[in-house]
Design a protein that fits this description.
The protein has 131 residues and is mainly α. 83% of the residues lie in helices and 0% in strands.
Length: 131
């Protein structure tokens, strides 16, 4: 199961990470997308682009290494909800797949091949030594 969870972490993280890197590499185009195509309500396009890039370049990295995995799924699930609702409602099959992977990671955790697991083991070992 740990290999499956690792594969899922990498797969879903790569989608968001690639998107964030594309935005950073072509910032003017990214802002144009938020102004003309994405049109996220209640957010200035520049701020929406900044928030998207921060989410897409931060939380996927945490997923890949398995650090704060459960917490890292939440902003990405939020992004999926916004994209599904306001931007690309016709892309529900992609969003369903990404959301399902993130919900699995949220509920099951990152598996043994993660920094979260190593940290838990160290904490448990320290508690056993004190007992």
């Amino acid at each position: 199961m740990s290999l499956i969870l690792l594969g899922m972490r990498i797969a879903v993280a790569s989608v968001f990470l690639k998107s964030g890197l594309l935005k950073i590499n072509s910032w003017e185009f990214a802002i144009k997308l938020f102004e003309e195509e994405y049109k996220v309500p209640l957010l200035d396009p520049v701020w929406a682009a900044r928030l998207a890039v921060i989410n897409e370049l931060t939380f996927p990295v945490l997923l890949i290494v398995g650090l704060a995995t459960r917490l890292a799924t939440l902003p990405l699930l939020g992004m999926i909800a916004v994209i599904q609702t306001f931007v690309y409602p016709q892309a529900w099959t992609d969003h369903l797949l990404w959301g399902s992977i993130l919900i699995l990671l949220l509920s099951r955790g990152p598996g043994a091949l993660s920094l979260d697991h190593l940290i838990e083991e160290r904490i448990a070992a320290g508690q056993r030594m004190r007992a």
